[in-house]
Amino acid sequence: MIKLVGTGVWVLAITLASVYVSLKMAATPKDDAEAAARAAALEFVTGYVTTVPVLGEGGVKGYLMTRLAYKANKELAEKQVVPLPQMITDELYTLLLGNRLIDVADTGSFDLDVFRTTVRDGLNKRFGAEVIDEVFVEQIDYLTTAGIAHPSPRQGVTIARGSVPAESGD
User: Fold this and answer.
1) Which of 126, 134, 129 is nearest to 68 (CA)?
2) For 133, what's the count of Cα atoms within 13 Å in the CB-facing half-sphere?
3) What's the predicted TM-score (pTM) here?
4) Which of 59, 89, 120, 131 has its CB surrounded by the most CB atoms within 10 Å?
5) pLDDT tens digits for 124-155?
């Protein structure tokens, strides 16, 4: 009987200690003032739908349609001579048409993380500062010229679809 009571007390002590330790560790997260200040310095920029022609033998084969959104540094974005949305559209043309970042013939090889990083790094290089912090892909579609001329219920190919966080009301 004493062993049974001793075992019960032991289990009770271990249970109470583990609950205490788990509550103590989860109770107050450490405030990271630097991360909070950085988040406060960012603004959400909704991009335009950008349509980039895909060139092939003898002309335009189709159109790549992208809709991206960005988190940008407010102060650095305001200092830019060219407005942010227009600069972003120009950089997308450079990356998608000039560098052929997306191969529409082989959509299986498309890496969304590499695309986001390349767009962010290209824009920041162009701005000369770390203006763009994060790139969000809402959707990337490819429409063929044949699909545009003779529309059908399924005329395009969705290359990527992502989620964009809701714009925070400041």
Assistant:
1) 134
2) 16
3) 0.65
4) 131
5) 888 888 888 888 888 888 888 776 766 665 55
